[in-house]
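Researcher: We're teaching a course module on how sequence relates to structure. For the next exercise, students receive a sequence and then see the predicted structure as tokens, so they can try to spot secondary structure elements on their own. Here is the exercise chain.
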Amino acid sequence: MQKHPNTYFSYKTPVGAVIIAANKEGITHVIFEEAAKNRLKTGKYKTLSNAEKTLESLGATKKASALTNKAANELLEYFAKKRRIFTVPLCMQGSEFQIKVWKELEGLYYGNYCTVSQLAAQMNMPDAKRIIGSAIAKNTLAIFIPDHRIISAKFSHELTSDAPIHPISRKEKLLAFELNGLPRDKKA
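Model: And here is the predicted structure for the students to work with:
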């Protein structure tokens, strides 16, 4: 059973506007302006305005709540490098398998990363890379469920080489942000 959001609000962050939606149980959606092309279960949207319309079609009202404010504050602390672990309650919405994958992602701590293949092996499901990748793509709780720590094999090579990191996607930029200032494994 889907637990739709009943409230949402737009906040400013160092990486642009973000919509945070919640119900009584926890945060249900985190939608960054740059990522507004991603899907909700009800369809696609291309702008934050369309994302708001989609949330309203699910019954949500544009109004800040204690939960959306707490999530926004935790995001601001994250971007200020004062927070590595989030404490705001989350209301994951998906199939049993998707939630299992997202819970596995929660175990990827700040500054750590892996590929889908590595995650599949860690879950003892090495042949399930595609379905695991699909579950990751359906994550509606960006940053709080750290899907940005799942990287392509190409980006993995870039992170482990001595070459400068050139992130291109929002997820790669977030991971590069987390790694900035942390010691690299290669070279002393």
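Model: If you want an answer key for the exercise: The mean pLDDT is 80. The two ends are 52 Å apart (CA to CA).
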